[in-house]
Specification:
Blueprint (H helix, E strand, L loop, with lengths): L9 H7 L13 H12 L10 E6 L1 H15 L7 H10 L2 E7 L7 H21 L3 E5 L6 H7 L5 E9 L13 H4 L3
Antiparallel strand pairs: 1-2, 2-4, 3-4
Helix pairs in contact: 1-5, 2-5, 3-4
The structure holds flavin mononucleotide.
């Protein structure tokens, strides 16, 4: 069995994870990236359908995704997407998370399962000293991504990965009293 990082306790990784939007210009070793994907595959999934595939994207292909996103969204008022496009361009690695099932009956299960897989990836990245950003903005170019990545599968999300060049404060969270119904 592949060994995941044991540098950090789980609670520590959960608390330390941040969305990282600035990365060092330094490549990430392939074995670390494979650990992230392996961690993703350990997530629970509805009926154990494992409705996912992952692709590690770097270099020109990654830049093409960034450029396409920027071009498509640069004139949308107040959109965060152009900024996200810049982050994709700067990050050394982008992981595409494909939804490999197209079944309306299981859609909610499949999307929830993919969310769990992504969170496993992010926490493992934190435990390995890597920064990560869960990116939903690539949904602006959902159709274009099918062309760029030569697939019929939907890209549910992308995740930027790299060595962090920032150490952001925790974003505010709703207090427990507000989210825990009595
Ligand atoms: C489904 C999803 C989509 C997201 N998409 C983006 C995105 O496209 N661009 C971005 O900069 N951040 C994106 N984020 C990151 C959130 O903005 C971030 O998780 C939130 O502000 C809390 O900050 P934290 O992750 O540092 O705790 C996304 C997060 C999730 C869960």
């Amino acid at each position: 069995m592949m060994k995941l990082g044991d540098i950090m306790e789980l609670q520590e990784a959960i608390a330390a994870r941040r969305s990282i939007r600035k990365y060092e210009k330094k490549d990430v070793p392939e074995d670390l990236l494979e650990k992230l994907i392996y961690a993703a595959t350990l997530a629970p999934s509805g009926h154990n359908r494992q409705p996912w595939q992952f692709q590690i994207i770097k270099g020109e292909l990654k830049d093409k995704i960034a450029d396409t996103l920027l071009k498509k969204t640069e004139n949308i008022p107040a959109s965060t997407a152009p900024h996200t496009a810049g982050i994709i361009k700067e990050a050394p690695v982008l992981i595409a998370v494909y939804l490999t099932e197209n079944n309306e009956e299981n859609y909610l299960y499949d999307i929830l399962s993919i969310g769990g897989a992504i969170e496993n990836m992010l926490l493992t990245a934190t435990s390995l000293g890597l920064g990560s950003l869960w990116i939903g903005n690539t949904s602006h170019i959902e159709e274009e991504l099918k062309d760029i990545l030569h697939t019929d599968y939907r890209v549910a999300s992308t995740v930027a990965i790299g060595y962090p060049l920032q150490n952001p404060h925790a974003r505010p969270r709703k207090p427990l009293e507000e989210v825990l119904r009595k």
